[in-house]
Amino acid sequence: DVVMTQSPLSLPVTLGQPASISCRSSQSLVYSDGNTFLNWFHQRPGQSPRRLIYTVSNRDSGVPDRFSGSGSGTDFTLKISRVEAEDVGVYYCMQGTHWPFTFGQGTRLEIK
Amino acid sequence: EMQVVESGGGLVQPGGSLRLSCAASGFSFSDFWMYWVRQAPGKGLVWVSRINTDGTTTSYADSVKGRFTISRDNAKNTLYLQMNSLRADDTAVYYCTRGVDLWGRGTLVTVSS
After folding, report:
1. Around A75, how many Cα atoms within 13 Å sit in the side-chain half-sphere?
2. pLDDT of the residue at B91
């Protein structure tokens, strides 16, 4: 199985400041069709995960533009330009290139 | 509104069985691969199983292979997960997903004596 490794696992951030989460995969996530199926999810306590970013850098509908994704191959990053209170929760990267799909361990973002 | 709604969770004894259902609405169910994902209490997310559009291709995580069976009824817009020989480590919230972009609220399965 592809192992997804996130860092940091805990991320205290001051409101209005930027935040960045790294995600590395144990093998390339480039699919045979050239797409890279790397997604980012956000999960608030007691809620189901919500996808924020798909195929590395595409924001889902309704996702604020302060969220951005980048990367290629095996190294990926989620950035939040200015953290707001509603951004607290756990962020997961997830690869959808190789079955079984796999998630990272999760990064818990909290407000300082 | 597009949504998927899980049901069928509950408390079951080790070795017992349970069938989860997922009712889909607001989209063309038969056009999409469907998945089950689970999350143990306080833990991360794990893909459990998937099924193709017409139900002829299925895949499972090693941890559930031989015990769980995924199926679908496109006429009823419903996805199922038959869970047999349940173990304590199957305790989790089980989410139904359309691809990776549409998730239900989940249904809690607790395996305990």
Report:
1. 0
2. 98
pLDDT digits (tens, 9 = 90+) for A69-96: 999 999 999 999 999 999 999 999 999 9
Candidates B4, B2, B6, B3; CA nearest to B107 is: B6
Q: What is the pLDDT of residues B37-72, one digit of tens each?
A: 999 999 999 999 999 999 999 999 999 999 999 999
CB–CB contacts below 8 A, A to B = 38
| B8, B20 contact by CB (below 8 A) | yes
Name the E strands within chain A. Answer: 4-7, 10-13, 19-25, 38-43, 50-54, 58-59, 67-72, 75-80, 89-95, 102-103, 107-111
Positive or negative torsion for Cα A90, A91, A93, A96: positive
Amino acid at A43: Q
Q: Do A90 and A107 touch, CB atoms closer than 8 A? A: yes
Distance from CA of A94 to the nearest CA of B (A): 9
Q: Do A49 and B59 lie within an 8 Å CB cutoff?
A: no
The tokens describing B33, both together, are 């691969």
Closest C-alpha to A6, from A90, A74, A92: A92
Provide the Cα torsion B89, B56, B34, A7; round to 10°: 60
Cβ-Cβ contacts under 8 Å, A39 against chain B? 100
Beta carbons within 10 angstroms of residue B107's beta carbon: 21
Using the beta-carbon criterion (under 8 Å), do B47 and A102 form an inter-chain contact? yes
Q: Rounded to an integer, what is the distance from CA B58 to the centroid of its chain?
A: 12
